[in-house]
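A reminder from the course coordinator: this example appears on the midterm review sheet, so study it carefully.

Given structure:
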């Protein structure tokens, strides 16, 4: 883990703003740099006592991990530089120690490998332990339990070998003292078991095994730490069979809480571990899947459940949190959303985000005992609490086969919403979705004068099993038709000018942009692909290096039975709309060759660089725009490209 270090320094001037900012009048004009800003703060998490926070923050155009005391004290803020590492997650163990999931790329036997570890960090940044540093192999960041008694203990599942024939390839579970790094074995590795699950007391209760050769899964279970594991369920992935794995174990050792979609969408149910049967439904969001759950202070019950309807939603089972949510919802009004993003263990202190789809928002610190909220950090230095950009709403349209599809529509503020130039923006994934939330790409394009439409085409997540299944076999086909039908809806409503439409997307959205330029170029003035996939066969060859490639290939074949026929790289001569291709050289999710080779194929097909296509490779960029400089260059290149081919 190269370059993971501590930088002392006061970030308060950059991260925090005074409450008087709430009354600042909105600016009417902003430079492009304002939209490219990294968020000043992301995912803040309070310590169990609520006196400290940890968050990803931006400084000098790059992201780092910050640990800060809420109350004034010497050296109250520490910033940890990430160097060449990715910061995937972070969580408090107790009031003195934090853990963070770190990943970096290294060369293993001539190939680039992503290596993951857990770092434990003292609250003042004075000590960092890289856990299992000398014994873990590739995957060493699976924390399956954190003590709730104030002790610095976790359970860590990790591999000790990279070779599938070795027993150590399958993770063992150790209890780790994060303050010293000392470890002792709790559960040894078992053949084909890659995932382990523990209850709130720290007893490993369940394991999930999978044999990629046979596509068979198995569920191992024990009622307590004195018993041995036994196989209680099996599933044949070739037959689309599945198993229920609990989301949490309750205080009753025979009961759990699980999610299941047998009624069409993922909902929460009671679960009997002895009979392996679902019981009473606990919560469902009609028409939508649930997302994640919040555990109570003991870790044995539900405090809340998150879901996404047209925008983010939450249902609190905890009466105190439900009341706080109701109070702050009333206070912020209908045009903004308030989210409780982190709480102290006793729920007396919390961090609340207030914002909307047209405003990045602000984080507040709320001490319920004092009855007051104070500003913790704005997310943007340019777009403060008094600023609202272009309005966002969800629309629904019918695809050509009658399927109803939701899409997020953003209209440029101050312009008559008639015959506008349109940017069609399919999301990545594709098993993902867009909703009414702040999006810097979208707001930049709307600020330039474009209407922006983000369809949640068939196969998107969040709308239940049947809607997701509609995408099977339809990559580049009916999923692409859904995008064209979205444009037709916008034109039919008089919102968009059919002759002024471009498609812009990243990852799978970049694939869809390439496919649009190749398959439906007559409909589009231009296309922009960032980190897009051009060659599905090449993507699967790359994935062959990873565990359980067989199952992954089966799934991909369900989505696109004939890779060649829907891969844009095989039809370079058919591209009839100009396209901007951009890709980061340090992208670990989609290899840069996907765009690089697409550009080479376009050149070989007689397309003219600078006229028919532009290829830009960003040497330091990753898949997620972690550097502000890369964000800015992308917006500048896209802005210039759109002005040439589809001016607003």
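Designed residues:
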């Amino acid at each position: 883990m190269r370059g993971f270090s501590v930088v002392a320094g006061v970030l308060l001037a950059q991260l925090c703003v005074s409450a008087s900012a709430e009354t600042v009048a909105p600016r009417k004009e902003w430079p492009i740099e304002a939209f490219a800003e990294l968020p000043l703060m992301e995912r803040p998490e309070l310590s169990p006592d609520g006196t400290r926070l940890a968050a990803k923050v931006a400084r000098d155009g790059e992201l780092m991990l910050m640990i800060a005391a809420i109350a004034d004290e010497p050296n109250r803020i520490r910033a940890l530089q990430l160097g060449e590492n990715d910061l995937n997650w972070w969580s408090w163990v107790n009031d003195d120690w934090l853990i963070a999931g770190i990943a970096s790329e290294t060369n293993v036997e001539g190939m680039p490998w992503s290596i993951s570890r857990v770092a434990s960090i003292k609250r003042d940044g004075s000590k960092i332990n890289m856990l299992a540093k000398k014994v873990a192999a590739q995957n060493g960041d699976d924390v399956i339990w954190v003590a709730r008694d104030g002790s610095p203990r976790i359970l860590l599942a990790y591999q000790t070998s990279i070779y599938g024939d070795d027993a150590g390839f399958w993770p063992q579970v150790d209890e780790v003292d994060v303050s010293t790094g000392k470890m002792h074995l709790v559960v040894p590795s078992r053949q084909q078991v890659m995932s382990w699950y523990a209850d709130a007391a720290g007893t490993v209760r369940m394991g999930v095994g999978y044999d990629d050769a046979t596509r068979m899964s198995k569920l191992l279970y024990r009622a307590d730490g004195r018993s041995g594991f036994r196989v209680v369920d099996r599933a044949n992935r070739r037959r689309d069979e599945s198993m229920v794995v609990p989301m949490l174990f309750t205080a009753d050792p025979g009961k759990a809480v699980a999610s299941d979609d047998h009624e069409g969408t993922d909902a929460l149910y009671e679960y009997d571990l002895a009979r392996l049967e679902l019981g009473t439904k606990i919560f469902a969001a009609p028409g939508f899947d649930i997302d994640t759950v919040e555990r109570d202070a003991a870790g044995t019950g539900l405090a809340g459940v998150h879901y996404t309807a047209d925008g983010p939603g939450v249902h609190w089972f905890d009466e105190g949190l439900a009341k706080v949510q109701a109070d702050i919802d009333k206070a912020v009004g209908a045009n903004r959303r308030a989210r409780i993003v982190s709480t102290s263990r006793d729920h007396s202190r919390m961090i609340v985000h207030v914002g909307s789809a047209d405003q990045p928002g602000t984080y507040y610190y709320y001490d319920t005992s004092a009855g007051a909220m104070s500003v913790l950090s704005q997310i943007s230095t340019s777009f403060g609490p008094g600023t609202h950009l272009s309005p966002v709403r969800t629309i629904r349209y019918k695809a050509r086969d009658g399927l109803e599809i939701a899409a997020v529509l953003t209209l440029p503020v101050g312009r008559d919403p008639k015959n506008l130039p349109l940017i069609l923006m399919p999301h990545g994934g594709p098993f993902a979705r867009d909703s009414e939330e702040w999006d810097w790409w979208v707001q930049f394009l709307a600020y330039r004068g474009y209407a922006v439409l983000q369809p949640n085409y068939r196969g998107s997540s969040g709308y239940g099993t049947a809607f997701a299944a509609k995408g099977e076999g339809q990559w580049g086909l009916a999923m692409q038709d859904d995008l064209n039908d979205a444009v037709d809806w916008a034109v039919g409503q008089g919102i968009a000018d059919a002759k002024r439409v471009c498609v812009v997307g990243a990852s799978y959205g970049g694939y869809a942009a390439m496919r649009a330029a190749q398959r439906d170029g007559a409909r589009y003035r231009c296309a922009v692909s960032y980190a897009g996939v051009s060659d599905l066969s090449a993507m699967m060859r790359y994935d062959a290096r990873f565990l359980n490639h067989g199952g992954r290939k089966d799934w991909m074949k369900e989505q696109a039975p004939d890779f060649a026929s829907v891969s844009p790289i095989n039809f370079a001569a058919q591209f009839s709309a100009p396209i901007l291709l951009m890709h980061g050289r340090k992208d670990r999710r989609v290899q840069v060759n996907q765009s690089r080779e697409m550009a080479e194929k376009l050149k070989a097909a007689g397309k003219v660089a600078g006229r028919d296509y532009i290829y830009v490779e960003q040497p330091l960029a990753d898949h997620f725009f972690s550097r502000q400089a890369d964000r800015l260059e992308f917006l500048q290149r896209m802005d210039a490209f759109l002005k040439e081919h589809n001016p607003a």
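Residues 369 and 530 are 48 Å apart (CA to CA). The longest strand covers residues 97-108.
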